[in-house]
């Protein structure tokens, strides 16, 4: 442990700061495809019984009309958020009739590209720009790739911790800047070690053969319709999934929030010749918001993002520029096919330890060479993370993946102990112990367990369907009580009413709305740091 980590742990263990450990916020966004009882993609519209995908606070869609996204409120205890996530799954299963929630990150059998429905959000300008953005994704990357699902983990430390840390370290400047740069430091540490998350929690070592749509690949055949890599942990996070050559090097390793914002600001303003050739309209209809490297900031496929809650119509960069970083969003977690809601409480407890460790640990500035090394380690972990004797690079030198992982878990032990003292239990230490066991015995890793189950069922799709049915049975066996049902009914109707109100009250043309929306990227980010 560094002296900085020791000092910060001692500060947080002291009486004045200890209660603040329980006041940070956690939230989960879980994506899942709707599928038919036989595992085919459900191409039906978003169920009206679930409310408006545009305005419902907990149930929306991601890329496709078929790709549900469940969002929990931000809670102080992740266990509470998981209970809320479970309730949404039970509601959705009840409202979907015979349809199922797909249990995997990688999709099962998909129809032809043209038959994968793009999400529809109504005719308001906000709804239409969300739809056109997704048309652009289809044009740029194809529809199949947009059907991949994941878990996003939103994490913040208590706002009251930042002034204590800043005062203890004698750092000058505004509290907002100190907080923002501390989150950026967390992100730097995350990028140095996020390969560990892929090894411990990656759960997509195989996929349906048709997903590749004839693209060249180096996968091996497991069964007639299943491809895999023998030691892969997360093909979702490999170059077959959410990696995009156009975005390679788009946001180089950054050491300040301004660096990050300027990189994204350039990308949403810089034309990309192939996209220019496509144009923004075809046959008089909008097909992408613009012809730039990114249509909007959210098109950047990052494993982690600095975030700030935004207002309706506000751009993420506007919010970060005006008010700084409020929380971080971890985006590299696979859906856990063995958990009905896609993530277990033990995994979430470990993430809390890992992210607090990343926030408190020394985080020196990074370089292009560091970034290349981090990316190479991540790629090795997703493609070969279970290979016996696999070595990564640390500071240019070879290091055993298992040895480095064990070292990191040991360094996290005091962080787990601190959180357990605050929780008055052992859940965080238990979560660490479970990860040590997985590093010692690779057969315990989710990717190994998934691969074994795929072999037992005969194919990726058969395993995915079996798990989807199993989870549906679990949800149906625990129906919501009357109060919960009524609360969701009210939420759904309120969201439908709000969408209707938006559509009735809007003014001006959609063309003008897009122009105004694009103009809201803070221009100063392309030339100079954000004004204070």
What does this protein look like?
The protein has 532 residues and is of the alpha+beta class. The protein has a single domain (3-526), classed as Creatine Kinase, Chain A, domain 2, CATH 3.30.590.20. The protein contains 17 helices and 14 strands. Strands 1, 2, 3, 4, 5, 11 and 12 form a seven-stranded antiparallel beta sheet that branches. It has a three-stranded antiparallel beta sheet with strand order 6-8-7, covered by helices on one side. The two termini are 35 Å apart. The model is unreliable at 528-532 (pLDDT under 50).
List keywords for this structure.
seven-stranded antiparallel beta sheet; 17 helices; 532 residues; disordered C terminus; alpha+beta; Creatine Kinase, Chain A, domain 2
**What is the count of helical runs?**
17
Stretches with pLDDT under 50, minimum 5 residues: 528-532
In helices, the fraction of residues equals 40-55%
CATH topology: Creatine Kinase, Chain A, domain 2
Percent in strands: 5-15%
- How many structural domains can be distinguished in the coordinates? 1
- Mean pLDDT across all residues, rounded? 93
Structural class, please?
A: alpha+beta
CATH class reads Alpha Beta
Radius of gyration: 23 Å
Give the name of the CATH architecture: 2-Layer Sandwich
Instruction: Count the E strands.
Output: 14
Q: What kind of sheet is the major sheet?
A: 7 strands, antiparallel
**N-end to C-end Cα span:** 35 Å
Shape: globular
Explain the layout of strands and helices:
Elements (H helix, E strand, L loop, with lengths): L2 H11 L12 E10 L23 E3 L5 E5 L6 H18 L4 E2 L23 H17 L9 E5 L5 H9 L5 H19 L1 H7 L4 E3 L11 E4 L2 E3 L28 H11 L5 H6 L2 E2 L2 E2 L17 E4 L8 H8 L3 E7 L11 H16 L7 H17 L6 E4 L2 E4 H23 L3 H14 L5 H12 L2 H17 L5 H24 L4 H9 L14
Helix pairs in contact: 5-10, 6-11, 10-12, 10-13, 12-13, 14-15
């Amino acid at each position: 442990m560094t002296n900085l980590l020791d000092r910060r742990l001692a500060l947080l263990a002291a009486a004045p700061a200890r209660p603040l450990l329980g006041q940070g916020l956690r939230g989960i966004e879980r994506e899942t495809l709707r599928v038919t009882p036989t595992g085919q993609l459900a191409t039906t519209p978003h169920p009206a019984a679930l409310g408006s995908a545009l305005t419902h606070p907990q149930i929306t869609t991601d890329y496709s009309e078929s790709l549900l996204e469940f969002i929990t409120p931000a809670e102080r205890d992740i266990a509470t958020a998981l209970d809320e996530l479970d309730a949404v799954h039970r509601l959705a299963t009840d409202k979907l009739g015979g349809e199922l929630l797909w249990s995997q990150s990688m999709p099962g059998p998909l129809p032809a590209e043209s038959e994968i429905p793009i999400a529809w959000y109504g005719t308001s300008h906000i709804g239409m720009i969300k739809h056109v953005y997704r048309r652009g994704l289809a044009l740029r990357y194809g529809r199949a790739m947009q059907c991949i699902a994941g878990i996003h983990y939103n994490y913040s430390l208590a706002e009251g911790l930042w002034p204590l840390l800043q005062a203890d370290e004698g750092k000058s400047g505004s509290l907002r800047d100190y907080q923002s740069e501390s989150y950026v430091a967390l992100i730097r540490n995350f990028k140095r070690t996020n390969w560990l998350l892929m090894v411990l929690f990656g759960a997509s070592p195989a996929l349906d053969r048709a997903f590749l749509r004839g693209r060249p690949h180096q996968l091996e055949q497991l069964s007639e319709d299943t491809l895999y890599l023998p030691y892969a942990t997360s093909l979702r996070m490999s170059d077959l999934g959410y990696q995009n050559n156009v975005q390679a090097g788009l946001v180089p390793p950054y050491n300040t929030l301004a660096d990050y914002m300027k990189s994204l600001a350039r990308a949403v303003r810089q034309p990309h010749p192939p996209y220019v050739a496509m144009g923004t309209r075809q046959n008089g209809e909008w097909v992408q918001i613009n012809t730039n490297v990114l249509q909007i900031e959210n098109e950047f496929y990052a494993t982690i993002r600095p975030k700030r809650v935004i207002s309706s119509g506000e751009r993420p960069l506007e919010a970060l520029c005006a008010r700084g970083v409020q929380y971080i969003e971890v985006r590299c977690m696979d859906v856990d096919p063995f958990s009905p809601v896609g993530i277990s409480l033990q995994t979430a407890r470990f993430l809390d330890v890992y992210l607090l460790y990343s926030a408190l640990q020394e985080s020196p500035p990074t370089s292009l060479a560091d970034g290349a090394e981090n990316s190479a380690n991540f790629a090795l972990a997703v493609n070969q993370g279970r290979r016996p004797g696999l070595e990564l690079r640390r500071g240019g030198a070879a290091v055993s993946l298992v040895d480095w992982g064990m070292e990191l878990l040991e360094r996290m032990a005091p962080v787990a102990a601190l959180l357990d003292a605050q929780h008055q239990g052992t859940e965080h230490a238990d979560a660490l112990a479970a990860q040590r066991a997985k590093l010692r015995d690779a057969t315990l890793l989710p990717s190994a367990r998934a691969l074994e189950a795929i072999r037992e069922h005969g194919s990726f799709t058969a395993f995915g369907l079996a798990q989807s049915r199993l989870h549906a049975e679990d949800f149906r066996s625990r129906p919501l009580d009357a109060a919960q049902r009524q609360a969701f009914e009210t939420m759904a109707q309120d969201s439908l009413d709000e969408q209707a109100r938006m559509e009735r009250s809007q003014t001006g043309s959609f063309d003008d709305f897009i122009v105004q929306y694009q103009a809201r990227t803070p221009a100063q980010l392309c030339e100079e740091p954000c004004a204070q």
